[in-house]
Write a structure and sequence with these properties.
By secondary structure, the chain is mainly alpha-helical. Helices cover 63% and strands 8% of the residues. The protein has a three-stranded antiparallel sheet with strand order 1-2-3. Helix 2 crosses helix 4, helix 6 packs antiparallel against helix 7 and helix 8 crosses helix 10.
């Protein structure tokens, strides 16, 4: 096939018009391969140009996303996947990982502290939430364990704020226990937190 026209299309892209088809390429790919009217291309060359352009655009988009906030590797992959092929997405992520732009530990540490301080989640629940965000199991475990956090004190705080009448109401007690278990607190920690509060009530604290 022969290129008939190379037209400036949308931002940072050109429309390549041939005698057989039309396709979009990014500006860098067009400039690098010196594409212009009259150049002949075969199907494999067109395929290669499209992949090269996809990789370039995926890297540009990934770099922009990371300039806005941190992403996990999985989070960035999921963000790019709807617009680019797997190869281009993995290429972009590989390039950014090689220069330290993607760091799951850097992303996970402040998230773990946030879950502990503002959500009162147990370390087990923090680990679960980090994994949901795309953090690897190993990194999630490290960050959850590194949080300076007393789970019994956290359980006490939740009970006092949300279930102040648990000691006088068996139904509230059951709901409270179930809710804390869902947050990842162990039954033993819940038991100790309840005992501490009841003892305080008996002593007028």
């Amino acid at each position: 096939m022969t290129i008939l026209k190379v037209l400036k299309s949308r931002k940072h892209q050109h429309l390549i018009v041939t005698d057989e088809c039309e396709f979009l390429l990014d500006d860098d790919t067009v400039d690098e391969h010196k594409l212009k009217a009259g150049i002949k291309l075969n199907a494999e060359q067109v395929k290669g140009l499209k992949l090269h352009s996809d990789c370039t655009r995926a890297l540009s988009k990934a770099s922009w996303l990371l300039s806005q906030r941190d992403y996990t590797e999985k989070g960035l992959f999921d963000k790019l996947k709807p617009d680019y092929c797997d190869y281009a997405v993995r290429y972009a992520i590989g390039q950014l990982k090689s220069v330290g732009a993607i760091d799951d530990m850097r992303y996970a540490k402040p998230m773990a502290e946030y879950y502990a301080e503002y959500k009162n989640l147990s370390k087990r629940a923090i680990k679960t939430e980090l994994i949901k965000k795309g953090v690897s199991k190993e990194t999630a475990e490290i960050c959850a364990e590194d949080v300076e956090y007393n789970e019994i004190e956290a359980a006490i705080q939740i009970i006092r704020q949300k279930y102040p009448t648990f000691s006088d109401n068996e139904t509230v007690d059951r709901r409270m226990t179930a809710a804390l278990l869902r947050r990842g607190f162990s039954y033993q920690d819940i038991k100790q937190a309840k005992a501490y509060i009841i003892k305080g009530e008996q002593n007028g604290i």
